[in-house]
Amino acid sequence: MTQQFPENDTQNLPGQQRSGQERLVDAEVEPEDKAIEAALRPKALDDFVGQKRVRQQLSLVLEASKLRGKSADHVLLSGPPGLGKTTLAMIIAEEMGSPLRISSGPAIQHSGDLAAILSSLTPGEVLFLDEIHRMSRPAEEMLYMAMEDFRVDIVVGKGAGATSIPLELPSFTLVGATTRAGLLPGPLRDRFGFTGHLEFYDVDELELVLRRSAGLLDLKITTEGFHEIASRSRGTPRIANRLLRRVRDWALVHSVDDIDARAAATALDMYEVDSKGLDRLDRSVLESLIHKFGGGPVGLSTLAIAVGEETETVETVAEPYLVREGLMGRTPRGRVALPSAWVHLDLEPPES
Ligand SMILES: Nc1ncnc2c1ncn2[C@@H]1O[C@H](COP(=O)(O)OP(=O)(O)OP(=O)(O)O)[C@@H](O)[C@H]1O
Ligand SMILES: [Mg+2]
């Protein structure tokens, strides 16, 4: 059976029109991701794809604590958005057979907020603090003592009449997650018994993530189809799952049952996610750099004007991935297109 895909497909599919703020290839979680992410999250360490080192080390930590019959060491998970920190935190609680309490740095602005959470923990409970680098200073200091001695001092009253009441806590396991490990103060970092740094996934690993998700969503996709989607997912499972949903929509609208590489590519091209996972903004940055400035070097603000975007958008939204992929370089004299950028845009790189 040959499938015909129209070249200029103008059907309206969900998520097609996205502003610069809401990109298909953004690794940050978006409202539409939340429900589906919960459904696609692996629940056991064995189902968690990739991150082999972190997985092995974590498995050891959990195994040892089970043998000792004590709650596991505190765990810090760091790494870029969408790589599985929240997922691992949930797996830790699941594997320990412990209840999980979830809160986050921004939600804990006063030490009292933290005291309320800590004092209501049950023995062995896992406390997940997301974005732990955004906790307030006083709360952070209270956390030091809680992590080390399972005890906090609660200050009652103000000024000269203030007294502190020591409060014993049940033993618990803190799982902290951060996208900015560098922002964590040393004393806090040192109190974690285990730190796992999550890395971007390679294409093979993302294929496995996609295979698993496709199984749960009941989608039929060929090996090459998975490869095509994985290659466009920027090393990030969250993006892979999001692209998979867009491909699913496309296949549904076009009555395609068996999604092969060509179908996946046609669908994602239509959503303007190219073979390396660049979207319209990324490509227009590269195209301006090459066509308007001969590949640079050109100053960031000039480049931004040429693209018609804010300087900050170019710097924080497009640039990190272009640099990571070796398509663009930053030099003291400005931004430059690297040879692979020319190749990616089907152009001949200049001699020099
Ligand atoms: N190793 C993995 N195997 C399978 N699925 C994964 C894996 N890592 C992440 N995912 C999927 O990617 C999605 C995002 O993962 P998660 O929410 O854990 O990321 P995160 O690191 O907590 O991101 P953020 O920094 O935005 O909080 C989840 O739906 C999860 O199913
Ligand atoms: Mg998270």
From TrEMBL:
<dbReference type="GO" id="GO:0016787">
    <property type="term" value="F:hydrolase activity"/>
</dbReference>
<dbReference type="InterPro" id="IPR008824">
    <property type="entry name" value="RuvB-like_N"/>
</dbReference>
<dbReference type="Pfam" id="PF05491">
    <property type="entry name" value="WHD_RuvB"/>
</dbReference>
<feature type="binding site">
    <location>
        <position position="238"/>
    </location>
    <ligand>
        <name>ATP</name>
    </ligand>
</feature>
<keyword id="KW-0067">ATP-binding</keyword>
<feature type="binding site">
    <location>
        <position position="40"/>
    </location>
    <ligand>
        <name>ATP</name>
    </ligand>
</feature>
<dbReference type="GO" id="GO:0005737">
    <property type="term" value="C:cytoplasm"/>
</dbReference>
<feature type="region of interest" description="Head domain (RuvB-H)">
    <location>
        <begin position="275"/>
        <end position="352"/>
    </location>
</feature>
<feature type="binding site">
    <location>
        <position position="85"/>
    </location>
    <ligand>
        <name>ATP</name>
    </ligand>
</feature>
<dbReference type="InterPro" id="IPR036388">
    <property type="entry name" value="WH-like_DNA-bd_sf"/>
</dbReference>
<keyword id="KW-0233">DNA recombination</keyword>
<dbReference type="InterPro" id="IPR008823">
    <property type="entry name" value="RuvB_wg_C"/>
</dbReference>
<feature type="compositionally biased region" description="Polar residues">
    <location>
        <begin position="1"/>
        <end position="19"/>
    </location>
</feature>
<dbReference type="InterPro" id="IPR036390">
    <property type="entry name" value="WH_DNA-bd_sf"/>
</dbReference>
<dbReference type="GO" id="GO:0006281">
    <property type="term" value="P:DNA repair"/>
</dbReference>
<keyword id="KW-0963">Cytoplasm</keyword>
<keyword id="KW-0378">Hydrolase</keyword>
<dbReference type="InterPro" id="IPR041445">
    <property type="entry name" value="AAA_lid_4"/>
</dbReference>
<dbReference type="InterPro" id="IPR004605">
    <property type="entry name" value="DNA_helicase_Holl-junc_RuvB"/>
</dbReference>
<dbReference type="Pfam" id="PF17864">
    <property type="entry name" value="AAA_lid_4"/>
</dbReference>
<protein>
    <recommendedName>
        <fullName>Holliday junction branch migration complex subunit RuvB</fullName>
        <ecNumber>3.6.4.-</ecNumber>
    </recommendedName>
</protein>
<feature type="compositionally biased region" description="Basic and acidic residues">
    <location>
        <begin position="20"/>
        <end position="29"/>
    </location>
</feature>
<dbReference type="InterPro" id="IPR027417">
    <property type="entry name" value="P-loop_NTPase"/>
</dbReference>
<feature type="region of interest" description="Small ATPAse domain (RuvB-S)">
    <location>
        <begin position="202"/>
        <end position="272"/>
    </location>
</feature>
<feature type="region of interest" description="Large ATPase domain (RuvB-L)">
    <location>
        <begin position="21"/>
        <end position="201"/>
    </location>
</feature>
<dbReference type="GO" id="GO:0005524">
    <property type="term" value="F:ATP binding"/>
</dbReference>
<feature type="binding site">
    <location>
        <position position="82"/>
    </location>
    <ligand>
        <name>ATP</name>
    </ligand>
</feature>
<comment type="function">
    <text>The RuvA-RuvB-RuvC complex processes Holliday junction (HJ) DNA during genetic recombination and DNA repair, while the RuvA-RuvB complex plays an important role in the rescue of blocked DNA replication forks via replication fork reversal (RFR). RuvA specifically binds to HJ cruciform DNA, conferring on it an open structure. The RuvB hexamer acts as an ATP-dependent pump, pulling dsDNA into and through the RuvAB complex. RuvB forms 2 homohexamers on either side of HJ DNA bound by 1 or 2 RuvA tetramers; 4 subunits per hexamer contact DNA at a time.</text>
</comment>
<feature type="binding site">
    <location>
        <begin position="148"/>
        <end position="150"/>
    </location>
    <ligand>
        <name>ATP</name>
    </ligand>
</feature>
<comment type="similarity">
    <text>Belongs to the RuvB family.</text>
</comment>
<dbReference type="GO" id="GO:0009378">
    <property type="term" value="F:four-way junction helicase activity"/>
</dbReference>
<comment type="subunit">
    <text>Homohexamer. Forms an RuvA(8)-RuvB(12)-Holliday junction (HJ) complex. HJ DNA is sandwiched between 2 RuvA tetramers; dsDNA enters through RuvA and exits via RuvB. An RuvB hexamer assembles on each DNA strand where it exits the tetramer. Each RuvB hexamer is contacted by two RuvA subunits (via domain III) on 2 adjacent RuvB subunits; this complex drives branch migration. In the full resolvosome a probable DNA-RuvA(4)-RuvB(12)-RuvC(2) complex forms which resolves the HJ.</text>
</comment>
<dbReference type="GO" id="GO:0048476">
    <property type="term" value="C:Holliday junction resolvase complex"/>
</dbReference>
<feature type="binding site">
    <location>
        <position position="201"/>
    </location>
    <ligand>
        <name>ATP</name>
    </ligand>
</feature>
<feature type="binding site">
    <location>
        <position position="87"/>
    </location>
    <ligand>
        <name>ATP</name>
    </ligand>
</feature>
<dbReference type="Pfam" id="PF05496">
    <property type="entry name" value="RuvB_N"/>
</dbReference>
<feature type="domain" description="AAA+ ATPase">
    <location>
        <begin position="71"/>
        <end position="204"/>
    </location>
</feature>
<keyword id="KW-0238">DNA-binding</keyword>
<feature type="binding site">
    <location>
        <position position="86"/>
    </location>
    <ligand>
        <name>ATP</name>
    </ligand>
</feature>
<dbReference type="GO" id="GO:0000400">
    <property type="term" value="F:four-way junction DNA binding"/>
</dbReference>
<keyword id="KW-0547">Nucleotide-binding</keyword>
<keyword id="KW-0234">DNA repair</keyword>
